[in-house]
Design brief:
alpha/beta, 6-stranded parallel β-sheet, 7 helices, about 180 residues
């Protein structure tokens, strides 16, 4: 499912926008009979979702990955989250491109829904611009696609695919941004 009316574009970031996102997220969380993964492009966006009522509207425990977590702390958080499947489920909130959205599998019934909030474009930087310019020189007309758009789509695909790890796995997947 793609939610077309929302976005994490800088010009769309507001309390009202985050509150609309939270209400949609809560609807999925509260209607999923097990674990849910919510993946955002940045810790800032994740924090804004939390600040705008995630815990208030969601009827399941929330496990939030933080940027200062050690590897062992993250591993324990994932173990605890997976154990929640026996208690009716929980919510895992993490960033796209991180350990939990790319390096952890939630096969079978360990995650039944995934929500990808926003498109994980890299922040503008001299390094990103140099990469795009290099690719443009070598692949005319394709530099931005190869150096900026495809890496973002790959991160989003990694997050969306956490719950589908075999041919028999099924999950509800929501992409929350009109740019998809």
């Amino acid at each position: 499912v793609i939610v077309n009316e929302l976005s994490t574009l800088y010009k769309h970031r507001s309390a009202a926008n985050y509150q609309r996102m939270v209400r949609i997220i809560a609807s999925v969380v509260n209607n999923t009979p097990g674990n849910i993964g919510i993946f955002t492009p940045s810790y800032k966006i994740l924090t804004e979702l939390m600040n705008n009522g995630m815990e208030k509207y969601c009827n399941k425990p929330i496990y939030q990955v933080n940027s200062d977590m050690s590897s062992s702390e993250n591993d324990q958080l994932i173990i605890d989250f997976k154990d929640e499947v026996l208690q009716g489920g929980a919510v895992l909130c993490a960033v796209l491109g991180g350990r939990s959205s790319e390096g952890t599998d939630f096969k079978g019934d360990l995650m039944l829904s995934v929500i990808v909030v926003g498109v994980p474009f890299a922040p503008p930087s001299p390094r990103i611009n140099a990469k795009i310019e290099y690719l443009e020189e070598n692949f005319p007309g394709k530099g931005r696609i190869l150096g900026y758009i495809i890496p973002a789509i790959n991160k989003a695909s990694q997050g969306a695919g956490r719950a589908v790890r075999s041919l028999t796995d099924r999950a509800f997947i929501m992409l929350m941004d009109f740019r998809y």
